[in-house]
Amino acid sequence: MTQGILVISHGSREKEWIRLVDESVAEAAGAVARRLADDGRDGETSRAVSFESSFLELVEGRLIQDGIDRLAAAGVTDLFVLPLFISSGSTHVDDIAQSFGFAPVNERAGEMEPFRVPPGIRLTMGAPINDDPEIAERLWHNVRELSSDPKRESLLLIAHGSREAGFYERYQDGMMRLAERVRALGGLARARTAMLLPSEAGAALAQMRSERPEEAVLVAPLFISKGYFTNQVIPSRLAGQDYRYNGQALLPDSAVAHWMVRQSLGWLYGLGV
Q1: Strands of 78-83's sheet, edge to edge?
Q2: Is 243 within a domain?
Q3: At what angle do helices 167-186 and 133-144 cross, to 10 degrees?
């Protein structure tokens, strides 16, 4: 039995975005290897676990099928598909799962062709980040430098989102739970969420400022890495309003790697490794 972990993220045309994801996957792979070695019994050689970082689009030669092919060539018999995405409300995650042969979230048909997975490879589909506690800690770390009087400040958590029926609700549920974790960590007065799709951010901020003008609003982007959405889209949607923002994303930080480690070890220990 040979295990492989296929980490799938969206992809970007920005080389720095790709570099940060790859470094995080490499950090997770090293941590998993060390943990398995530490847990090995006397006289037992720990198994090597192959990690592969792949992308939904935009990264030539490193798409999902490329990752499957590389892991299959390495002799993997058990494959854990780990979607490095923010939310279970992402239609991309559902598309990926359906292309691996897993059931859809609802009646929506996937938009991708089936992947070519060699017979005999056993598949397990993991879940995205959603409201992971350590990710909440990272988000609070990101905005803490903007805070001076938490009891008179509020949080607006902004993510990409989805306007698809069923997926919007899943996105919103995970975001709200995550925002509440961040609010509690920082002792902030309140927390709200908004999506870019549909376009909610500007109206959400305006409502928060109108309801409690005495509160400063700390805006936290919920994105894997900095890029077009954190640098351009969010500021443009909030233009002309009063808020505090530094554009910090989840990477670079070990919280994302730690999340991958926890998901991977949970799967591996379930296999009896």
Answers
A1: 49-55, 3-9, 78-83, 122-125
A2: no
A3: 60
pLDDT at residue 7 tops 80:
yes
* DSSP assignment letter at 112: S
- Count of beta carbons in the 10 Å neighbourhood of residue 137: 16
| pLDDT score of 271 | 80
Query: Region 79-100: what's the mean pLDDT?
Result: 97
pLDDT at 273: 59
pLDDT at position 43 is 43
Strands 190-195 and 3-9: unpaired
Pinpoint the alpha helices (H) of the chain: 15-39, 64-73, 91-99, 133-144, 167-186, 201-211, 228, 234-237, 254-270
CATH of the domain at 224: 3.40.50
| pLDDT tens column, 37-78 | 988 744 445 577 999 999 999 999 999 999 999 999 999 999
Instruction: Say if 242 falls within a structural domain.
Output: no
Q: Is 255 helix (H, G, I), strand (E, B) or coil?
A: helix
- State how far the Cα of 190 lies from the Cα of 183, in Å rounded to an integer: 6
Q: Which of 221, 205, 201 is nearest to 213 (CA)?
A: 205
The answer to whether residues 17 and 123 belong to one domain is yes
CA distance 181 to 190: 11
The Cα–Cα gap between 69 and 66 comes to 5
Boundaries of domain holding 163: 133-237
Q: Note whether 55 and 25 are same-domain residues.
A: yes
Segment 106-153, tens digit of pLDDT: 889 999 999 999 999 999 999 999 999 999 999 999 999 999 999 999
- Whats the size of the chain, residue-wise? 273
